[in-house]
Amino acid sequence: xxxxxxxxxxxxxxxxxxxxxxxxxxxxxxxxxxxxxxxxxxxxxxxxxxxxxxxxxxxxxxxxxxxxxxxxxxxxxxxxxxxxxxxxxxxxxxxxxxxxxxxxxxxxxxxxxxxxxxxxxxxxxxxxxxxxxxxxxxxxxxxxxxxxxxxxxxxxxxxxxxxxxxxxxxxxxxxxxxxxxxxxxxxxxxxxxxxxxxxxxxxxxxxxxxxxxxxxxxxxxxxxxxxxxxxxxxxxxxxxxxxxxxxxxxxxxxxxxxxxxxxxxxxxxxxxxxxxx
Length: 277
Description:
Elements: H1 3-44, E1 48-61, E2 65-79, E3 86-89, H2 96-102, E4 110-122, E5 128-137, E6 142-147, E7 171-177, E8 186-197, E9 203-206, E10 218-220, E11 226-234, E12 253-259, H3 260-267
Antiparallel strand pairs: 1-2, 1-4, 2-3, 3-6, 4-5, 5-6, 7-8, 7-10, 8-9, 10-11, 11-12
């Protein structure tokens, strides 16, 4: 074999070895991320709860009159205080803003009223706790719920004392409660951040890949630091609006991650337990 042939063979072997090492490293990194995700699930699943409620809605349009409907809904929330303070997406308890955005082109011809009752917190072990909404923040799409009576023992919480940060293309772990058909099991998903919006208020834009994540899901770094909550951002628009929620950017409505610091600040306005009984 000539010297030139030996060099070419060496280069091919080197390229093949490098490719193998890259694949092995990538698989090891992926496995590590999955392990960390399972650790986050183990740590916080008892703090992620189902909030059950009855929502009554009244729709009215100038050309069609009015009609009412009542539905029993369930939404994911999570405990942020041992006394039982829970945060979830306001859109899951009061869809008024979302419906107004969808029907924005009708202007004053379309009106919707919403009322919520029979609120219950369903814990990880199936325990039902009567509750009520104590605070709403429409700008951030946050609703805060408390038990009607303080719990006998401190409830497991999502730690927000040292919040995490995320950057573009970072992968995060989200937790959610599945529906009744899946026995309301706590599920974990990996979400990738596609953008960080800094003005007028900071928030994260998750990817559009289908996952189990939904409104109210808490989101964590792989190391377990709380980053924020999946919520709905709605901006009033006079034009038509698309129907997609997490399907990608829309003119006036899209799914976002509300940062931990905004949730912490909003929670300060929630009344203490003794004022909600």
